[in-house]
Amino acid sequence: MGALEDGAEEAVSLLETERLVIRPWSAADREDFAAMARDTEMMRYMNAGKPFTEEEIDGFLLRQERQLAELGVCMGAMVEKESGRIAGVAGIQPLGTTGDYEIGWWVARDRQGRGYATEAGRAAMRHVLETLAHPRVAAIIDPGNDASVAVATRLGMRYVKRTNGVELGHRRPNIVVDLFHRERVDDFTVGQRASFTKTFTDDDVQRFVAITGDTNPLHVDDAFAARTRFGRRVLHGMLAASLFSTMVGMLIPGRGAIYRSQTLSFLKPVFVGDTVTAHFVIREIDRERHRLTIDAWIENASGERVVEGVCEAGLLR
Predict the structure, then answer these.
(1) 203: exposed, middle or buried (C-beta count within 10 Å: 0-12, 13-18, 19+)?
(2) Residue 311 bridge partners (DSSP)
(3) Contact 313, 259 (CB under 8 A)
(4) For 117-154, what is each residue's pLDDT tens digit?
(5) For the whole prediction, is pTM greater than 0.85?
(6) What are the residues facing 284 on neighbouring strands?
(7) Domain region containing 262
(8) Dihedral sign computed on CA atoms, order 220, 222, 223, 224
(9) How open is the CA angle 31-32-38, to the nearest 5 degrees?
(10) What is the domain-level CATH number for residue 230?
(11) Is 308 helix (H, G, I), strand (E, B) or coil?
(12) Count of H helices and E strands in the chain?
């Protein structure tokens, strides 16, 4: 088994679902993997329809160990939580030289029909799109493998084209496969909403002043502010509007977002100590350019709009 360690089964899981754990392979797993890889029926749509040789079995396991060490992802052991037994193979790996991550699944014949492929595939897909913040996830499926096409369809993946190993920069140049993609932008719909609430304190104001150097007395001097028409200190407008950055970076689009533009109108003052809520509603989706146009506004505790504008946010590509 080369460098695979006997204690790998104690490693933290790569992915976890309600019924499954996907973890790195250990030396003790070789025979469980080999039983699947030698199964002619299971290999019908893998490895050119041929059972793995002993050399290919070891090569697969060592390749997954190397990818895990280098990239933090691999095609791991799919383990049933209830029984503790290996029920298949699932995970993530680079797709040739495309720059994309591929998700994949095999399910042992005596564990098929339980929805494990969809469950594992969904966890792998979300990891690529959300945790790794990759703009797209791919799957390659042998022509005729209707069961895997059904899984990809349930995951919201779309057929792109029939391709081959040369075009993909795959280690097996002779393969002919159907390519499926799901884009991160496909996670979003027109009308989708998000909100975030925050109470602005004097500490927030002092930190903002330290960063920006904006010591306008309207924001920092109680006596001065009391003599103005506002009657008390007003929050810096850009400090209030900074909630839109939180919305872009953490909610819509979230991880992997690029803030492209923002219009702002300041409608009412926000005072130190006020609690406000920022709202986003997706207005338009440009799937070609991976961009969202978002109606954005902030309300005070009385439901009055204090700031509003339009945001454009993109996704890392």
Answers:
(1) exposed
(2) 262, 294
(3) yes
(4) 999 999 999 999 989 988 899 999 999 999 999 999 99
(5) no
(6) 293
(7) 193-315
(8) positive
(9) 75
(10) 3.10.129.10
(11) strand
(12) 10, 14
